[in-house]
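Quick one: structure tokens for this chain, please?
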Amino acid sequence: MKHIILNIEGMTCSACSNGLEKYLSKQDGIINVSVNLVMSNASIEYDERKLNQSKIEEFVKKAGFKSLGEFKEIKSNAKNKIEKIKFTVFTVLAILLMYVSMGHMINLPIISFLDPHKCTINYMLFLLVLTICFIAYGFDIIRNGYKNLIHNTPNMDTLVGIGVITSFLYSLYNMYLVFNGNQHQVMNLYFESSAIVIYFVKLGRYIDGLSKDKTKEAIQKLVKITPNKAIIKVKGKLKEVTLDEIHKGDIVISKPGEKIAVDGEIIEGKAHLDESFITGESKPVTKEKGHKVIAGSLNYDGYIEFKAEKIGKESTVSEIVKLVVEASNTKPPIAKIADTVSGYFVPVVIVLAILTFTIYLILGQSFETAITTFVTILVIACPCSLGLATPLAIIVSEGMCVTNGILIKKSEVLENAQKTNVVIFDKTGTLTYGQLKISEIKNYSEMTEPELLQLVGSIENKTTHPIGKAFVDYLEEKKISKLEVEEFENIAGYGIVGRINNNKIIIGNAKILEKYNIKNKYKKDDKELASKGNSIIYVVEKEKIIALIGVNDIIRNDAKEVIKVLSNMKIETIMLTGDNNKTAEKIANEIGIKNVISNVLPKEKANIVKEFKQRNKFVMMCGDGINDSPALAHSDIGVSVNSGTDIAMDSSDVILTKNNLRSITKLINISKNTIKNIKQNLFWAFFYNCLMIPVAMGLLKPFGFSINPMIASFAMVLSSITVILNTLRLRNIRIS
């Protein structure tokens, strides 16, 4: 199975995206497809044994749309400038057309050679030529409407296309009658209706396009973080290349003031780098030999050489952009309401328009009145606002999430986060920084403390756990060399084992003693260290405990505040940790968590999450994405507190790129406001159509109120603008 994201041209409403999605999903070889209206792309999973990209693009073409190739990056398109020029020109032409065709009705000065009564031929030809120009301008609407109709997926373009062509052909017929001597028919020309309907549809799409561009700004900023060029070292010589020319293993040079071109590992030099765009940490980070660098980081003051490791789509920045785009291509359940409605709505409107046209003729109304009503119903019912109601709100909210350091993988998170009533926190690396320091040592061996810590640090160097880093940092700080370790083994939830100088060394928590049947003579010392808030590390050699080491962690500055905010939101908070109970209770008391579950193995964490879910709780699990992977995967929403090169953790639904716990409450608030906004949008979209279709059918004519196709097209645009403006209000809502 392969996955591809294609950029799609020609989608204009939810019926378009819904129709394309249905059409593609019916094709043999396509396993799953999600079409995104706002981002104008389609996320497709397919069987590579049956299909390839070119075949899928053929399906897209047959469905009435155009594939612009695989998604690579979001960037401004020169096409937008051309569209702006076109729109400006046709705005002038629309004003001129309206003046000539309707100016005399409100006593505006008449252009003498275009007087409908004195220069009838000039007047008709002028309207005809300008209307043909507008039809050419909106030919994509008519073409897409026709293609969707023949594929049994009629959409907004179908409604507009039928209305425009009907009005145009009826006007041509009346023009023919004028040429045959029926001068009175000059007042029954509706060329301007066809033209202005197209203009207002284009106006709506132009405004829609501007709003979509704004929602992509946060992603565009990420894309622009990396430089366009870099310097690499080839056979001892420096060479300037583009990013596309850099390959894995190339030696890349970075000088003061330059941005890091690709992800890699420093092999020479030292510098202070600004990684705030990923980590949210404003202070420069010291980087030297052996340290990883992230593309887009700013080199403040040093010369470094690093080996390229992740290039192109594999880079951290590309991973973020990819995840945001993929998230926007997943549909929250609430979006299915609009999709389902639009799927039935368009065919129903066409039937209503035909029925109304027929009934008008049966009741003895003129053909002119019947055809005008027919066109008005088709135009006013265009489901533009319905198509924008959900996806636009989702994209705006995802942009807010990215800006606030919240990277979501599925847009359904935005719908579900507001349901959260239990948040389970891991301790080390989540509620604490994971910056552990050795605080106290109980040494029962004949070794000196440096010798003991050299032994422990050499084995801990083989693991990525935050506790191990405390020992490695000690060795580096004291400039103590590491010993050679053999037969290293990581025992999840217990500790680690290794062999040094042919001696088996066991390092871990109290549970590891039980696992190896080692008698614990030092429980009193254990309690003493734990009472001071230490995590306890046992060191065993030759089946005897040779040391107890207390390691202390630093509580996150924002942890206490976040727990308080969650409590005010009536959300239960729980600490779930593999550490001993006393240490866990001490930290929990400091930050205000009342429910603590300690001495838990990674696999047991997942079972505890399941237990809460069985009690009908909606569980958000927040962990460091390493030992907490099973629990993150089993929770309703898994939140990973991590950054840098581990940005794309598979186990979590959400990644807090700035390592800031406040992002959790921000996510919940964004979710609440997003759902509220979508419901408002859907209400106004449904309310508009329910209100205006009966008006278009002429049900209010007895009360002296009626509308024509031009007013209908303008009203249609106003409904879309209402939804757009309401959605953009999300940007101004306080979420802290």
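Confidence is low (pLDDT under 50) at residues 643-648.
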